[in-house]
């Protein structure tokens, strides 16, 4: 963008100077910061923690929770631990919630999960991790308190990519009681209590490429 400016001189002769202002694309907003996590009984320590399928569930839990609360799915941590299909589903869900504070949900922390068994597919490309979790692990506009901590049965679907890395694809809860000896609950400090209303255009994704429209 150029701006014309009239400069007067002592002789009364004016000079027109063109000032050029740089107009580049707007910079991307900063990535969300992961809050401190306070654990009810220390970090998870089940006998299955070293299993790669369980490790994949653990690796995805924090970046996924941060993405939900920040309505921002850009982070490398998220894309390196969660399947692209799952991230697309999250993008669509966040955009659908935009502008509807009564339907907007936040999560108190990473998904609580005590793994009990791992069922690997015959081709070795996917697995179902069975375990215990917490029913309705969400906060809403009208319900800011933590949900009841009685364990229920849950499972996580994990896939293995061609390069040998793992991605969390789906988590499925239930209301069926579950016996758990190692379920520990991690809660963000502080809890997400900001403005619950946002526009779908406020959802930050990698698809945006930061080609933001400029008003006016």
Q: What is the topology, as strand order, of the major beta sheet? A: 5-6-8-9
What would you say the CATH architecture of the domain at 36-137 and 147-192 is? Roll
Terminus-to-terminus distance: 14 Å
Q: What's the CATH C level of the domain at 36-137 and 147-192?
A: Alpha Beta
Keywords: Signal
Signal peptide: 1-28
Protein name: Lipoprotein
Summarize the topology.
Blueprint: E1 2-7, E2 15-20, E3 36-39, H1 52-70, H2 76-79, H3 84-97, E4 105-106, E5 114-120, E6 126-134, E7 139-140, E8 151-160, E9 166-172, E10 186-189
Antiparallel strand pairs: 1-2, 3-10, 4-7, 5-6, 6-8, 8-9
Overview of this structure, please?
The chain has a domain at 36-137 and 147-192: Nuclear Transport Factor 2, Chain: A (Roll), CATH 3.10.450. It contains three helices and ten strands, in the order E-E-E-H-H-H-E-E-E-E-E-E-E. The protein has helices at residues 52-70, 76-79, 84-97, and strands spanning 2-7, 15-20, 36-39, 105-106, 114-120, 126-134, 139-140, 151-160, 166-172, 186-189. 27% of the residues are buried. Mean pLDDT is 85; it is low at 1-21 and 211-216. Keywords: Signal. This is Lipoprotein. Residues 1-28 form the signal peptide.
């Amino acid at each position: 963008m150029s701006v014309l400016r009239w400069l007067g001189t002592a002789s009364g002769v004016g000079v027109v100077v063109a000032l050029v202002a740089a107009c580049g694309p707007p910079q991307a907003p900063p990535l969300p910061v992961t809050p401190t996590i306070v654990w009810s009984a220390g970090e998870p320590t089940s006998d299955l923690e070293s299993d790669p399928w369980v490790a994949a569930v653990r690796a995805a839990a924090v970046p996924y929770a941060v993405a939900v609360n920040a309505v921002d799915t850009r982070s490398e941590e998220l894309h390196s631990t969660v399947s692209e299909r799952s991230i697309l589903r999250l993008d669509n869900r966040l955009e659908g919630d935009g502008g509807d504070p009564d339907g907007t949900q936040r999560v108190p922390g990473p998904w609580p999960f005590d793994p009990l068994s791992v069922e690997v597919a015959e081709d070795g490309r996917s697995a179902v991790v069975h375990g215990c979790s917490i029913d309705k692990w969400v906060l809403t506009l009208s319900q800011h308190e933590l949900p009841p901590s009685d364990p229920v049965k849950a499972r996580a679907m994990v896939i293995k990519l061609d390069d040998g890395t793992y991605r969390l694809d789906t988590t499925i809860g239930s209301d069926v009681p579950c016996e758990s000896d190692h379920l520990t609950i991690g809660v963000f400090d502080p809890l997400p209590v900001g403005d619950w209303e946002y526009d779908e255009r406020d959802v930050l994704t990698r698809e945006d490429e930061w080609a933001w429209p400029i008003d006016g």
